[in-house]
Amino acid sequence: MKESVAMPKVWVLGAGQLGAMLRHAGMPLAIDVLPVPLDSTQAPTLGATDIVTPEIEHWPDSAATRALSTHSRFINHPVFARLADRLTQKSLLDELGLATAPWCPVTASTLATDLYATLGERVLLKRRMGGYDGKGQYWLRRADGDEIPADWHAAAIAESAIDFDEEVSLVGMRDRDGNCFFYPLTLNLHTSGILAASVAPLARLAPLQSQAEAMLRSLLDSMDYVGVMAMECFRVDDRLLINELAPRVHNSGHWTQAGASVSQFEAHLRAICGLPLATPAVRGTTVMINLLGTERNDQWLSIPECELYWYGKAVRPGRKVGHINLCTTSPDDLRRSLGALTRLLPDHYGEVLSWAADSLP
């Protein structure tokens, strides 16, 4: 009898919800996924064939992060230094000729008047390192006489304000042989800089799919990337502008857990472990609702289409504590489910759920 092939252990740099969902996705494939807290003082003992992948672009210096980030099989290791810094990330987009918001670095001598002259009346400062979910950003407006705060000099990039029509993202994957596969474009809604909801797929976004795939494929190939990457974009008419890149599984791909034959988490594990990839089959239309600072309500599970992912975190205002996926082939059923969910979530979710319902065909 032929012995089964042992799968490599996969260590995740970080033990948040993304690491937990990677661990869950590995179970059916007998891949042992081991998330490690970033602040762990205990250095894990890695085998020579073990694999390391991160759930976040930035990590503090600790015994655990040193052991993981220096391992010889830390997949995509060179990518993180380049994409984690917004200056080098934007420079890469320019080198590849990929459309993004007009931008420039903020040096020690940059003045607000320089930025207004180059980028327009409204300018968004973004910290080069760190910053997510709306953090690490600062708006400058000429009309208000805004100046660059002292601690943003030499620590940020500046972008021109974009009057976009909507926000979309593309999640793609690439294997070791350079084969690329993509999920359908996802429509996203952000509130206070945090992703509130996603809808995918939508037929009206299909004409933009090939444009988005060409952009992400160029990025994946240029870095010889292996695994899942997310590309967030602004849609301006029929043109996409890249806003941010995430070299990992991403919140806007959570809908794939219910809406696709292979979730983004399984796809990432397949790619880094050398298992076959394919274009995932889409099961229907999925609405993903982020649960932000909201107490758990088990009555959500009374909605037939509801799939709840609860992260087990302490609930704090604005904190991601879980998400709900609603998937069906019937837009009318989705609207009914969103209506039922409206009655079971705090009042401020009304606007988010209405947006999701209005986005459906």
CATH superfamily annotation of the largest domain: ATP-grasp fold, B domain
Low-confidence stretches: none
How much helicity do the residues have?
25-40%
Rounded to the nearest angstrom, the radius of gyration is: 21 Å
Extended strand count:
16
CATH class of the largest domain: Alpha Beta
Which structural class fits the helix and strand makeup?
alpha+beta
**Overall 3D geometry?**
globular
- CATH topology of the largest domain, by name, is D-amino Acid Aminotransferase, Chain A, domain 1
Domain tally: 3
Order of helices and strands: EHEEHHHEHEEEEEEEHEEHHEEEHH
CATH architecture of the largest domain: 2-Layer Sandwich
Assembly level: single chain
Distance between the termini: 53 Å
What is the mean predicted local confidence, pLDDT?
A: 95
The fraction of residues in strands falls at: 25-35%
Biggest β-sheet strands, sense, barrel = 9 strands, antiparallel
Number of DSSP helices? 10
Could you please describe the fold and organization of this structure?
The structure is a single chain. Helix content is 25%, strand content 27%. It is of the alpha+beta class and 361 residues long. It has 3 domains: 10-74, Rossmann fold (3-Layer(aba) Sandwich); 102-160, Dna Ligase, domain 1, CATH 3.30.1490.20; 166-359, ATP-grasp fold, B domain (D-amino Acid Aminotransferase, Chain A, domain 1, 2-Layer Sandwich). The strands form 3 sheets. Strands 8, 9, 10, 11, 12, 13, 14, 15 and 16 form a 9-stranded antiparallel sheet that branches. It has a 4-stranded antiparallel sheet with strand order 4-7-5-6, with helices on both faces. Strand 1 (10-13), helix 1 (17-26) and strand 2 (33-36) form a beta-alpha-beta unit. The radius of gyration is 21 Å and the shape is globular. The protein starts with 9 loop residues before the first strand and ends with a helix.
